[in-house]
Fold:
Amino acid sequence: MQNQLKAIMEEAREQLSAAKAVAEVEEMRVRLLGKKGRITEILRGMGKLSPEERKIMGQAANSARAEIERLLDEKFAAFKDMQRALKFKEEKIDVTEPGVVTPLGTKHLISITIDEISRVFMSMGFSISEGPEIETVFHNFDALNAPKNHPSRDMSDTFYITEDVLLRTQTSPVQVRTLMKQDPPIKVISPGRCFRCDTPDATHSPMFHQVEGLVVDEGISMADLKGTLDAFAKQLFGSNAKTKFRPHHFPFTEPSAEMDVSCFKCGGKGCKVCKGSGWIEILGCGMVHPNVLSVGHVDTEKYTGFAFGMGVERIAMLKYEVDDIRLLYENDVRFIQQFK
Structure:
């Protein structure tokens, strides 16, 4: 048995020295030390020996087993170190190599335009007020003096969620909510998203943005409205911009008007932007109807006010010469990057 153990030890050293893979070492461990391994078989066969021989052979077999385990552990550790070194080499980072350029995003044209409009009005003392995009029929229509048979209430124009709940068609409900929770003087603008049942084309979208404004105080007149909006146009389109007001009708204002600004492209001479007229319509406005003020329990004998509203997409398209509103919603980075 001692000769057998000696032969096993010599064979183990030779084979471990020649092993090239972890699988080979594992196979040797099972073949030598497993349940049916050669060392195990020797230990099981010592029952046939005399007590003295069993003691001597037991010590020799256990010594051989311990030596083989040590050699196996060293070989496993060597392979582990080799794998770690190879992994470090493969994952090595060359800090001298140029980095990967990650392009930075930029503000969307709609956000740029809302910020520009907001800055102009905030410089005049306006504050920003916001409200929910899911609105009630009361805030969106009833409180704004819209007749029960007004076309804008039709399902062909408005997205209804229930009979009394809808997606707001304008940001005017924010003005109603402001009147109901704040006492005059009031001077706010309300930018935000709106929704209408429009078929998408070059000039229409079922989702769009508005900026509406409301001023309520003592002695507010049409002259204040015209002066405010004329100053706004000059700051947004340039000091040479001119404005004119045309009579119109809105349920929530009386009198009502639409405001045109002289074409900033041709200076009023006539071009394709203004369709040869020299003027561009940019917003609707008027003096707040007493019925709307009454919703907020405002004393109409003491206070008056004016309101206005403009489409953000329209102003953005005019100012930056975008000819199709769908470009604003296609998420094409090439389009957006033009306005850095």
